Prior knowledge:
It is a single chain. The chain is mainly alpha-helical. Helix content is 65%, strand content 1%. A two-stranded antiparallel sheet has the order 1-2. It is globular and about 75 Å long.
Amino acid sequence: MERDESDPAVRNDEARVPFDVVPNPDTQVDQGVDEKAVRHSRDSDIDRPARSQSRDEESGITAVGEDTNEKEFEVTWDGDEDPMNPRSMAHARKWVTIIILSASSLCVTCASAMYTSTYAQLEKEFHCSRIVATLGLSLFVIGLGLGPMVMSPLSEFYGRRPIYIASYAFFLIWLIPCAVAPNIATMLVARFLDGLSGSAFLSVAGGTVGDLFPKAQLSLPMAFYTAAPFVGPEIGPIVGGFINYNTSWRWTFYVLLIWSGIMLAAIVFLVPETYHPVLLRRKAIKLRKDTGNLAWRAPIENMNKSVFRTVAWSCVRPFQLLFLEPMCLNLCILSAILLGILYLFFGAFPLVFENNHGFVLWQTGLTFLGIFVGMVTGVSCDPIWRKNYNRLVTNNGGVSEPEFRLPPTILGAILVPIGLFGE
């Protein structure tokens, strides 16, 4: 489902709610970079005269660049083939990056649901009720929801790669107290911090896909990445069921530690920086060094907003939209209901299939295969809805309307209640 680039919301790189909204291909494409503006070659840059100077005869002070247009020295890409432009990377390297980020997102969302298969052993070892044990799942999801409000704006200043590395490193670190927790309190605190740390991959990684691919090539890689956060909650109980049936609940977190350790190493060594404004800043620094001309500036270097103000606004903005935009509120309520139903199954399926049908733990995990197939089918239908959206835009004279994206939501809102009758 493509977004109209004229829509200001398309360029908004703020926090998103995990799982409930499919990352849109155009959400973070271009990143405020006008790629139609092609700079002269490096040779012509070197030959360009330094900033003009004029003498103020009255004050005797030299004014630098008074008659120079700042836009003339604004650093942009030399097209998609610019060697510093992430879209000029080899196709194979782009896909390696997408696969690593998708697998990392899958690990985070699997971690949320694998925990549900540990309930019985946690209750026995920590002498707690099922409701208290369930808090470990709830707190993890709360962390996933709150984290993007901080992670997304930070990526606008420091780039995506530092956020990935820091976020995943802390995600791995907070898995350790989960694995060795001596009591339920330690488990609950660690679960919240673990979800908070891993949330970057549900809010920032979608932008990397847009950084790497132009709009015409975006459909397949975005669909591939989009599937990861959606199928993770279904894979978690399946894998966790086999682990907890054959060994201790602590091995659930040992497996996650091994998986996340591999992914962190892959991120550090194989995932490059792709955020266009940050890369343009690097290009500007290189131009200033090579030419000796300090006039070269990247757009991000001219920003007058502070990190604190940006993060604070990111924390306020979601609530402002909820209370002041009825359409946004309605869609968020629908998403919350769908996400709530999904996580309700994690508690309901063991009760239904173990108590009523005599399933063992690994068999109960397999009951989530139906939801898994449904998720994959839904994501696979994205090209159909994309084609329908393009048709509606064409019939409307090339002008996009927000309502053109509602058909899949309307159909889903009808099918979900029908599907619940079969549960």
